[in-house]
Amino acid sequence: MRILHLSDTHLHGDPSARHYDRIDTTAALRGLLARCEAITDLDAILHTGDASEDGSAESYRLLHEILDPFAAAKGAQLVVAMGNHDVSGVYGGTIALGDRGTAVQDRVVPLAGGWRAVVLDSSVPGAGYGHLDPEQLTWLREVLSEPAAAGTVLAVHHPPLVAATPLLRALDLDALEELAAVLEGSDVRLVLSGHYHHEMTGQIAGIPVHVVPGVTNVVDPVTAGEREQARALSGVSVVELGEGAPWVITSVLPHAGDPDGDPGDPVYDFGPEQVAAIVEAAGR
């Protein structure tokens, strides 16, 4: 099983809109896919959320206008999870009805070779953090009670890992112990996530977790100190699953959505007061 993993495209319904008044998110996605043309033998393309910035039907149509032909040309199954900037009901009413209805986009997607993707909708309307309610976990337990022939990839926007920065820790996923209890002993081979906008690895219930950098920007969690910074870069990963541990490689590339900017200049640079305001508005 060979997967192209991307996340956090933050597309706008209005083509003139710019992310942080700077980034052309449509150009960023198209530019990244152009760099991915040489990738071969893909079975799936997994987009792990924040597909849209404004939650509009137009943004979701644009996403599929761009990704559907790319996936078809690669012979790959396209799978999209919902993130905190997405509006699940709009996506469900415009593009795809989830297994649990329009408003919650949980679903099971069969993949090649006996694999499957299980998608969890961790979005909370009007909030930035992630949540899995008891009904979702019950549904997940029932799905995983019947293993797939080859195994399962779990896709969820908010990573089931403690975040690396104070801002992201206020916007991370809750119910980790409950999720771990459901995943324990299951056929899930790998969890794929986005949201943090930087690469990260870890485990939940002994299962590897991979977080891909954002397409729209890439966060600096290491050298930013007490500040929260992101730069005009795009990230993408290729994941291979077979015998043994997952094989994951990641590229961080120059940004096609910021042609006149300097990649060395932050897209945003938040100090403690700005972080506190965001946590107050969108945190748990």
Automatic annotation (TrEMBL):
Residues 1-198 form the Calcineurin-like phosphoesterase domain. Keywords: Hydrolase, Iron, Metal-binding. It comes from the Bacteria. The keyword Protein biosynthesis does not apply. Gene3D superfamilies: 3.60.21.10. The keyword Oxidoreductase does not apply. InterPro entries: Calcineurin-like_PHP, CNP_phosphodiesterase-III, Metallo-depent_PP-like. Belongs to the cyclic nucleotide phosphodiesterase class-III family. This is 3',5'-cyclic AMP phosphodiesterase CpdA.
